[in-house]
């Protein structure tokens, strides 16, 4: 580890590692990169504990395009991240997403969202009740007025595989990774100049990237800055079915999608089991070290909704559960990517609110462009920059789950 780096990245999970990869992959960048991660096991990282899915079904075109690029990277990941002949396989399951609507408001949202998705070239269709029943005969659909189904470019994949692929390739391309923790950031007026580590080391920095997930606000405060991001707990459950409906679909070779019920409960296949979760009734900020699952959500919210939706889900049994953290943006539940307007060499890559894995590739590329060129070159992420945080102007996205 050197005493000064052109770019210091605080946080080494999927976002930090993606930034390091795109910087070191660009021949126009000739600087040095240091990634600081306090827990190299990543056992409590949002990356490791997520449901690791990707979708194009958003309401805002920029979010659709971000995921379209993410899907492209996932498809080509082995070739992009090859190191010494090893091509990582993300085991992508192209099951798609299925949104169900049973109220006039939900129906209108799906229609409006669909217009935005189609304008970006997303492969999404709207189905009426009969079309839905034909495609997925295990579902009870008497109450459903409209469904939105992603036929391609959506699914789920190996979450830590994505992170380690970026990390390993970035290291092979010259990025340094260190196990330590940033405890202080020194600022000289409108610029940050160095970071101090728990080990006592002081590292000079040309640019600092905040990629510290749910701890984003803590990192920002060290530089005298604020960002409205806090840890919110999400519990996931894996359950077994007495009689699985997987294989019963009339589309996609019988594979079931990730279904989002009108109640907000979601469910998707997970090997021979199913993975499920729901938005919590109460959603307070939690301590950074609070990972106790909310066990009652399954019996009180999830199982009743699933049993109502399908006879196949009447007889199910939980076989595993865990809780992870959303890096929750309290302003608008969307990513914040960009430099601080007054401290130009402090860059935010935060607030993904549960979408960090699928938005990691576009974020890593975008941040690298800001650092190398001073602006976005491929996908313009200006709409999700920090300026809206300062102005208190939410970036509206109606398809947040």
UniProtKB/TrEMBL annotation:
UniProt-listed Pfam families: DAO (PF01266)
GO biological process annotations for this chain's record?
mitochondrial respiratory chain complex I assembly
State the UniProt keywords alphabetically. Membrane, Oxidoreductase, Transmembrane, Transmembrane helix
Gene Ontology molecular function terms on file: oxidoreductase activity
Q: Which residues cross the membrane?
A: 7-24
Do the record's keywords include Transmembrane helix?
A: yes
Mind telling me which GO cellular component terms the entry cites? cytoplasm
FAD dependent oxidoreductase domain residues? 6-370
Q: Which SUPFAM superfamilies match?
A: FAD/NAD(P)-binding domain (SSF51905)
**What is the protein name for this chain?**
Glycine/D-amino acid oxidase
Q: Which organism is it from?
A: Alloyangia pacifica
The organism that produces this protein has a lineage beginning with: Bacteria, Pseudomonadati, Pseudomonadota, Alphaproteobacteria, Rhodobacterales
């Amino acid at each position: 580890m050197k005493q000064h780096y052109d770019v210091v990245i605080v946080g080494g999970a999927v976002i930090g590692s993606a930034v390091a990869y795109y910087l070191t992959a660009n021949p126009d960048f000739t600087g040095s990169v240091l990634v600081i991660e306090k827990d190299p096991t990543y056992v409590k990282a949002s990356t490791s504990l997520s449901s690791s899915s990707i979708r194009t079904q958003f309401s805002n075109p920029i979010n659709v395009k971000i995921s379209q690029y993410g899907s492209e990277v996932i498809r080509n990941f082995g070739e992009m991240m090859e190191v010494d002949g090893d091509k990582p396989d993300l085991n992508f399951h192209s099951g798609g997403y299925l949104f169900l609507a049973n109220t006039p408001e939900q129906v209108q949202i799906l229609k409006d969202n669909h217009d935005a998705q189609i304008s970006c070239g997303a492969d999404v269709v709207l189905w009426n009740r009969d079309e839905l029943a034909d495609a997925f005969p295990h579902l009870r659909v008497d109450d459903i007025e409209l469904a939105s189904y992603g036929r391609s470019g959506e699914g789920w994949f190996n979450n830590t595989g994505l992170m380690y692929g970026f990390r390993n390739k970035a290291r092979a391309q010259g990025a340094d990774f260190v196990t330590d923790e940033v405890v202080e950031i020194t600022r000289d007026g409108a610029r940050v100049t160095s970071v101090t580590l728990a080990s006592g080391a002081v590292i000079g920095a040309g640019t600092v990237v905040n990629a510290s997930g749910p701890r984003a606000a803590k990192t920002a405060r060290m530089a005298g800055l604020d960002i409205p991001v806090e840890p919110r707990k999400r519990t996931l459950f894996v359950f077994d079915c007495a009689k699985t409906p997987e294989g019963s679909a009339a589309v996609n070779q019988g594979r079931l999608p990730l279904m989002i019920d009108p109640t907000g409960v979601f469910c998707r296949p997970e090997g021979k089991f199913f993975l499920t979760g729901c938005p919590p009734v109460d959603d307070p900020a939690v301590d950074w070290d609070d990972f106790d699952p909310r066990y009652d959500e399954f019996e009180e919210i999830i199982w009743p909704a699933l049993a109502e939706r399908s006879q196949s889900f009447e007889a199910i049994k939980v076989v595993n559960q865990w809780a992870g953290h959303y890096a929750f943006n309290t302003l608008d539940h969307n990513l914040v990517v960009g430099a601080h307007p007054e401290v130009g060499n402090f860059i935010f890559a935060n607030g993904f609110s549960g979408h960090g894995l699928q938005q990691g590739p576009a974020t890593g590329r975008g941040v690298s462009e800001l650092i190398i060129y001073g602006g976005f070159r491929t996908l313009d992420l200006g709409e999700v920059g920090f300026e809206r945080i300062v102005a208190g102007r939410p970036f509206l996205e109606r398809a947040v789950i």
